[in-house]
Amino acid sequence: MSWLSSVRKGITSLTTKRQSEENLWHKCGKCGSMVFTKEWEDNQKVCPRCDHHDRIGPTDRFDHLFDRGQYDVLATPSVAQDPLKFKDSKRYAERIKAARAKTGEDDALINARGKIDGRIAVIGVQDFAFMGGSMGIGVGAAFVAGVQAAIKAKAPYILFTAAGGARMQEGILSLMQMPKATVALAELREAGLPYIVVLTDPTTGGVTASYAMLGDVQLAEPGALIGFAGQRVIEQTIREKLPEGFQRAEYLLEHGMIDMVVHRHALKDRLGRLIGYLAPGKKKAA
Predict the structure, then answer these.
(1) Residues 140 and 39 occupy one common structural domain
(2) Same domain, 146 and 221
(3) Nearest CA to 198 among 116, 78, 102?
(4) Strand extents, DSSP E, the chain
């Protein structure tokens, strides 16, 4: 073996070892504890030390919530790409391409159909990893598709929100998704079907101003940041210091903005009970 091959082998071995060590541990974003990645993932990405609920994507949500982890992912509607030919430091088309490569998803909202406690349900999940879960034409179209799938299945629509707000690269077109979602929800209610929202960290901006706060029942995960404008902007506007925990799930519950704060481990059971109350049709055969 030549000296160059030996050096390459040593570098490869060192890099692989470093990567495996990094993958072995997860550092909690709240308390800073180092937790075995497997332990953290087995705990549904909730810190076993401080109970911090980390962000999770659609696949993890569906696996945890649907009976036996069985479900069908619904097709993502095809929409116009980069309708405004937007460019900042990067072209919008390049940002979309990078987000798709990173997450393996077409856009920031994914729907799936399956059973919760034996009853059919359609669940939509916004993925913050996809451009901050931002609401654009694709998200609006996916939301409407999820509602229509729920109506067709005579099932509730359950939405997990996580977003920084409207997608600025689509300008006014992103804001048009707000009334579009509201009209879709009117059709869901006309069909006599419930709309349940689970607010996760973070849910802000135009998403909070529209479909995130229109649920028949509003749930939230512990510690989730929920609001419209940022805390600093509000403080500068009203020229007052905001109270401790402002815009967190527990504060909103205390002040009547949401109905309940539910630990991630208890979500499946709580949603199953809510579906039983709000859509008490006969359970489907397993």
Answers:
(1) no
(2) yes
(3) 116
(4) 25-27, 34-36, 71-73, 109-116, 119-126, 157-163, 195-203, 217-220, 260-261
Other CB atoms within a 10 A radius of the CB of residue 3 amount to 7
CB 235 within 8 A of CB 258: no
pLDDT tens digits for 229-257?
Answer: 988 899 999 999 999 899 999 999 999 99
Residue-wise pLDDT tens digits, 175-202: 999 999 999 999 999 999 999 999 999 9
Pair 184, 148: CB distance under 8 Å: yes
Answer yes or no: are the C-beta atoms of 162 and 221 closer than 8 Å: no
Count of structural domains, the chain: 2
> What is the domain extent for residue 254?
55-278
61 within some domain: yes
Only one residue has tokens 């919530």, namely 65
pLDDT digits (tens, 9 = 90+) for 120-147: 999 999 999 999 999 999 999 999 999 9
Which residues are bridge partners to 248 per DSSP?
225
| pLDDT the model gives residue 281 | 72
**Residue 194 identity (one-letter amino acid):** P
Considering only the C-alpha atoms of the chain, give the largest distance between any 2 of them, rounded to a whole number of Å: 75
- Looking at the domain assignment, is residue 286 inside a domain? no
